[in-house]
TrEMBL record:
Cofactor(s) needed: Mg(2+)
Protein family: Belongs to the tRNA nucleotidyltransferase/poly(A) polymerase family.
Residue ranges of every copy of the Poly A polymerase head domain listed in the record: 14-132
Protein's name according to its UniProt entry: Multifunctional CCA protein
Source species, domain of life: Bacteria
């Protein structure tokens, strides 16, 4: 923000939230959020700011397109993270606005000269590496359970931990039943963000510790040992694939049976791409668990059919790469079997005179035959 920006002349403006936090941690800052104290919506529009907020006054700067929100307070009116009445007025102070935020490290501000405004001890908690709630109002918003867990997934590598008193409030939000009022879409948004953080396992452990995982994702929470094994897999991904969030979700769920994955996906309203990759990875997980003693052509054919390899050939290589993390020899065998089977094309059989049902049967027979030969050659 330039101090010479004429659109901001006479306004009391502060940079707030994540930009202040990450700058003090030495992390890159990509977006700035601003709070304007003492102004009205009319004053912002007169200066050329474009209103975009539906629930409270937020405006976009006409040139930088950064967000400028009028200072506001919130009062709990109902259940869930949407059950709040927002009050935005020129008499709302910066301290009032910061008080409604979740964690102290998110409740710091800087004035236009870069001076820190820190009424709730965010800088102290940054130094102490603590995720601490701003006020007892933390328990009014169940989304804060997920956000706190997600910040732990981001900063655990820096030594951050959740303050014990904040963890107690997270447990209280679960025990009161307030966590049940989170809508599926919002749970998934936070979970997907956590899957992209440096330490996603910290997110699920934090939710498990406070009881939220049993409510929101009971299929993952039912077996503590299986959950820990799944969390250990989150950093073992195919190197050639950049879809880290999707792969981490798939690895997290690969041990679940089909019905458990279906229920979990429906509860979270999982995007189709996540559902499909989780299904493919579960099939691969079962294949390499059974191998090499039970590896045979029929099993490999069923696996290729299951991941729809004949129509979606691009799915095979990442799954083979996944197998190589656990069993490199098996991965080599699968890659050879697939390469040979994929060379048998329907057109060649059409040229030989096969058609209709006979064409499909012969295609499967020949593919199965070269897969059997490849496996037999490997064993010998």
């Amino acid at each position: 923000m330039s101090q010479d920006d004429p659109r901001l002349a006479g306004l009391e403006v502060y940079r707030v939230g994540g930009a202040v936090r990450d700058a003090r941690l030495g992390w890159p800052v990509y977006d700035n959020d601003w709070v304007v104290v003492g102004a009205t919506p009319e004053a912002m529009r007169e200066r050329g700011f474009k209103p975009v907020g539906r629930d409270f006054p937020v405006f976009l700067h006409p040139e930088t397109h950064e967000e400028y929100a009028l200072a506001r307070t919130e009062r709990k009116q109902g259940h869930g993270y949407t059950g709040f009445q927002v009050y935005a007025s020129p008499d709302v102070t910066l301290e009032d606005d910061l008080a409604r935020r979740d964690l102290t490290i998110n409740a710091m501000a800087e004035d236009r000269a870069g001076h820190l405004v820190d009424p709730y001890g965010g800088a102290r908690d940054l130094e102490a590496r603590l995720l601490r709630h701003v006020s007892p109002a933390f328990v009014e918003d169940p989304l804060r359970v997920l956000r706190t867990a997600r910040f732990l997934a981001r900063y655990q590598g820096l030594g951050f931990a959740i303050a014990e008193e904040t963890r107690a409030l997270m447990c209280q939000l679960v025990e009161s039943g307030e966590i049940h009022h989170l809508v599926a879409e919002r749970v998934w948004v936070e979970t997907e963000k956590a899957l992209g953080e440096p330490y996603p396992e910290a997110y699920f452990r934090a939710l498990s510790d406070c009881g939220a995982l049993s409510v929101l994702m009971p299929e993952l929470a039912r077996d503590c040992r299986a959950l820990e094994e799944a969390l250990a897999r989150l950093h073992r991904l195919p190197e050639e694939d950049g879809q880290w969030e999707r792969w981490r979700w798939a690895r997290l769920c690969e041990h679940l049976d089909d019905e458990e994955r279906r229920r979990l996906g429906e509860r979270l309203r999982l995007p189709r791409a996540y559902h499909d990759l989780a299904h493919q990875t579960a099939l691969t997980h079962r294949l390499w668990l059974a191998a090499p003693a039970l590896l045979e052509g029929a099993r490999v054919m069923a696996w290729l059919d299951g991941i729809d390899a004949w129509r979606r050939a691009e799915r095979v290589a990442p799954q083979v790469a996944l197998v190589s993390l656990a069993n490199p020899e098996l991965a080599t065998d699968l890659a050879l079997a697939w390469r040979l089977a994929a060379q048998i094309l329907p057109q060649a059989l059409l040229d030989e005179g096969f058609k209709g049902k006979a064409l499909g049967e012969e295609l499967r027979r020949r593919r199965r035959e070269v897969i059997d030969d490849a496996l037999a050659s490997s064993r010998s």
